Amino acid sequence: MDQHDAMLSRLLDLHPKKIDLSLGRTERLLEALGRPDLALPPTIHVAGTNGKGSTLAFLRAMLEARGARVHVYTSPHLLRFNERIRLGSEGGGRLVDDAALQDALETCERANGQQSITFFEITTAAAFLLFSRTQADWLLLETGLGGRYDATNVIKAPKATVVTSISLDHPEFLGETIEKIAMEKAGIFKPGAPAIIGFQREAARDVLERQARRVGAPVAIAGEDFHIYEESGRLVFEDAHGLLDLPAPRLQGRHQHENAAAAIAALRAIDPDFPSKAMESGLLKAEWPARLQRLSRGRLVDAAPAGAEIWIDGGHNEDGGRVLAEAMAEFEERESRPLALVCGAQTTKDVRAMLRHFVGLAREVIAVPVEGEHKCWPPEEVAAAAQAMGISARSAPSFERAVEMLAATSFERSPRVLIAGSLYLAACALAFNGSRIE
């Protein structure tokens, strides 16, 4: 364990709960730090259940294509904590280095003393401190959980806010209905700051629109104020400012068209004359690890059946399963291959709801534990759930064993392998493969 890993472990013990939604502790610490949150560049604040990170990736790529220096704050990380904090610089950002991260964490720990604060709250304060120390043109800020009481919501005057697709997730913290969850996400809306409401179920959209108008935020609603459609392999975006004929996004899956549209709508709300060339470049350059990411080289690719396609995605709820299944069905139309789903999930997630979307699509499921997570569904239960739906399924005691089982399976042609169900499982796959995130 290196020095800042030891400190991160220590910070986990500053509060008895991993999650305890509140703004007070974060505001107290920021005050002790001299209010670095007041020295941040113009901010675009993004909340939602699915698609937050991809939307931020599009925003970052488009802004950088225009020559901007862009800070980015996301969570959770996949392989190392540094991934959460990207510092803007000329020619593209860079992940915070170990020395700067260690200094910021130590500063926050000293300023906090022994007062109670959650891990996410104190590390968010550290991120704000780092962002305030490095000049940039923009900050792209992702909520950790919810919105209203999320530590990132200490930002009082964002340039714009975006709420991506909302679905049932974290009901123990955000509420057990779409309407209640939407109310929490709507907490990021601020007076005068354009509120971009991404493609939503009607129940969520109605709550979001009502709350945006209540606080005095100008509203742009997907499907009403801006639209997207495909034409001859291109992505067409249309709003009150006109029509844009753009290339299809580099990020795979039709759901990424919706995330790209939310990013474009946000930039057009801030600057109606934002260059279309920068948008084109951003669509083609945006990257977001573990979101329908195809592995082309590495240990996992070498260990898989010859010629296999290997896809990784962190989707972990019902809507995540739906869009993944839709993407796999689209891939099947382009090139038919047997689909093997390697699946592991936390017990807080409805793995059965996710699996239902793969009925008639997956050739088999190999259920695995989510290594490093104690509250994961036993693989045997996940396999049994798949079998009850009519999907052939087996269980493996580890991810490595699942790879061995795949390699030993006879397929009529090279398979398509999807590893999904948890971001922690996606991280395990990337680590096994020897991948790096820069």
UniProtKB/TrEMBL annotation:
Keyword Transferase among record annotations: no
Ranges for domain Mur ligase C-terminal: 300-422
Primary enzyme class: ligase
Domain of life: Bacteria
One cellular component term from this protein's GO annotations in UniProt: cytoplasm
Domain named Mur ligase central: residues: 46-266
Cross-referenced InterPro entries: Folylpolyglutamate_synth (IPR001645), Folylpolyglutamate_synth_CS (IPR018109), Mur-like_cat_sf (IPR036565), Mur_ligase_C (IPR004101), Mur_ligase_C_dom_sf (IPR036615), Mur_ligase_cen (IPR013221)
Catalytic reactions on record: 7,8-dihydropteroate + L-glutamate + ATP = 7,8-dihydrofolate + ADP + phosphate + H(+); (6S)-5,6,7,8-tetrahydrofolyl-(gamma-L-Glu)(n) + L-glutamate + ATP = (6S)-5,6,7,8-tetrahydrofolyl-(gamma-L-Glu)(n+1) + ADP + phosphate + H(+); (6R)-5,10-methylenetetrahydrofolyl-(gamma-L-Glu)(n) + L-glutamate + ATP = (6R)-5,10-methylenetetrahydrofolyl-(gamma-L-Glu)(n+1) + ADP + phosphate + H(+); 10-formyltetrahydrofolyl-(gamma-L-Glu)(n) + L-glutamate + ATP = 10-formyltetrahydrofolyl-(gamma-L-Glu)(n+1) + ADP + phosphate + H(+)
Pathway given in the UniProt record: Cofactor biosynthesis; tetrahydrofolylpolyglutamate biosynthesis; Cofactor biosynthesis; tetrahydrofolate biosynthesis; 7,8-dihydrofolate from 2-amino-4-hydroxy-6-hydroxymethyl-7,8-dihydropteridine diphosphate and 4-aminobenzoate: step 2/2
Classification via Pfam families: Mur_ligase_C, Mur_ligase_M
GO biological process: folic acid biosynthetic process; tetrahydrofolate biosynthetic process
CC cofactor: Mg(2+)
EC number: 6.3.2.12, 6.3.2.17
UniProt GO MF annotations: ATP binding; dihydrofolate synthase activity; metal ion binding; tetrahydrofolylpolyglutamate synthase activity
UniProt key word Cell membrane: no
Keywords carried by this UniProt record: ATP-binding, Folate biosynthesis, Ligase, Magnesium, Metal-binding, Nucleotide-binding
Family: Belongs to the folylpolyglutamate synthase family.
Job of this protein: Functions in two distinct reactions of the de novo folate biosynthetic pathway. Catalyzes the addition of a glutamate residue to dihydropteroate (7,8-dihydropteroate or H2Pte) to form dihydrofolate (7,8-dihydrofolate monoglutamate or H2Pte-Glu). Also catalyzes successive additions of L-glutamate to tetrahydrofolate or 10-formyltetrahydrofolate or 5,10-methylenetetrahydrofolate, leading to folylpolyglutamate derivatives.
Stated name of the protein: Dihydrofolate synthase/folylpolyglutamate synthase
Organism: Methylocystis bryophila
